[in-house]
Amino acid sequence: MGLSFFNTLTRQVEPFTPREPGRVSLYTCGPTVYNYAHIGNFRAYVFEDLLQRHLEFRGYHVTRVMNLTDVDDKTIRGCRAAGVPLAEFTQPFKRAFFEDLDTLRIQRARHFPEATAANHIERMIAMITTLIERGHAYRADDGSVYFRIASFPAYGRLAHLNLDELRPGARVASDEYDKESLGDFALWKAWTEADGAVAWDSPWGRGRPGWHIECSAMATGILGPQIDIHCGGEDNIFPHHEAEIAQSECVTGLDFVRLWMHCKHLLVDNQKMSKSAGNFFTLRDLIDKGWTGREVRFVLLSVKYREPLNFTFDGLAAARSALARFDEWSRRLDDHLALHPAQPLDPSQRSTINDQLDLSAFGAALDDDLNISAALGALFEVIRDTNKRLDAGTLTAAEVRALADWRDQINAVLQFQPETVAIPAEVEALAAARAAARAAKNFAESDRLRDALAALGWTVKDTKDGQKLTPA
Ligand code: AMP
Ligand code: ZN
Question: Residue ranges of the domains in the chain?
Answer without folding.
Answer: 19-263, 284-414, 425-471
